[in-house]
Amino acid sequence: MRHRIPLALCSLLPGTALAANLDLSIELPRLDVAEYHRPFVAVWLEREDKSVAANLAVWYQQPKKGGPAQAAPAAPAAAAGAPQSGMQGVAGNQGGTKWLPDLRQWWRRSGRELALPVDGVTGATRAPGEHALSINLADLPAGSYKLVVEAAREEGGRELVDIPFQVPVKDAVSLKAKGSRELGAISLSVKP
Amino acid sequence: MKNLIKPLVLAAACLPLTALAHKQWIAPSKTVLNVDGWVTFDAASSTDPFVRDHNAARLDNLVITAPDGSTVPPENPSAGKLRASFDLQLKQPGTYKIAVVNTGIAASWDDNGQTKRWPPRGTPFTPEGFAQEVPKKAKDLKVTQSIGRLETFVTAGKPSDTALKPTGKGLELVPVTGFNDLYTGEPATFQFLLDGKPAADVEVEVIADGTRYRNEVGEIELKTGKDGRFTIEWPQPGLYWLSASVQDKKADEPATERRSSYTASFEVLSP
Fold first, then answer.
1. Does B264 reside within a domain?
2. Torsion angle (degrees, nearest 10) of CA B110, B111, B115, B121
3. What is the pTM of this model?
């Protein structure tokens, strides 16, 4: 699981490996709150036994480039007016890794075993709006999967949305789900 | 009213002894963290678990075992009136065991209708003191050895079990389901060992945090099977207090009876 290869697959299951093309759209809703922080988000593919077939994206507060070795209390805040603590506080060289366990399900299923950052998977938090991801999985064994999107926000809540799908597909399928607060519309199209 | 009071008095008289004792607990602020994260712990005894309203726990025998099996000291230990506390930074990936192990021998006997005890509260057992203070042929002389473990567990990153290896002494709990991998909707199985061997037919009591904010204590009562295992269904997320004790005759001299007890706290998350 410590691979630095993008979208590394831990395919322990025997069976035919097939290519799958996934097009995702993830909406982060614009929330009218007094103190808004961009959510931490994890996106992954789950097998039927809930193990992780692939990590697709993990967005969290990144370490400050050229930042101090330790997040010193006197260091300037990452963003003007940002609070000095919490998920989006002083980034230092650790960034928001302290708060990654708040993506509870992702942390349990794979986050806690990963060496971060993971090239092509981890990245900075995203602004409200729709975010598209296009992923080509070279060898995904036939079976039932779930696309899982989990979001956790400082001063906010946590939400988990999933979309079950099958591999392989004969024709392209388009699937949708919707979060209730922390996540907006999620869509997934699976192409052969 | 009269009809009501009688059964109540009877019920009170029939309460098991343990119900009268205060419950000990160590409450971690969090149990699932990333490496380098800090946890703070409160430790106390009280009638209801996790309610800070009686006495601070004594931390003289606190031992923190790191994931690599080494012992690490607590940071900022302090004792208040109602609770003792200490901090811990999880510098290693894996599971830490936080344990207070109290052992001792105590004697009680009947001296002309009065119950005498030795050693006095807060003083340790010594063979010399025992020989001097306890009459050998006292009426109803009972010499009891006690081994009490008070534990909790926290994990940075991926859970591990090096720190969880049983010592083989007294009553101990080992994971079947990981101690820091507990979720509502997923029954958890643990195993009790007595002197390192599966402890069958042990009664286990489990109480969820928050007794102060509900009318029922809501104890969950369980019993270990032949293999020492038992399974818990967590009704809701939160902290849980788990306790069990067994009595036998496998005592060290001069004790003739032995009481082994085990108490631990677990955090259950929502999936």
1. yes
2. -110
3. 0.86
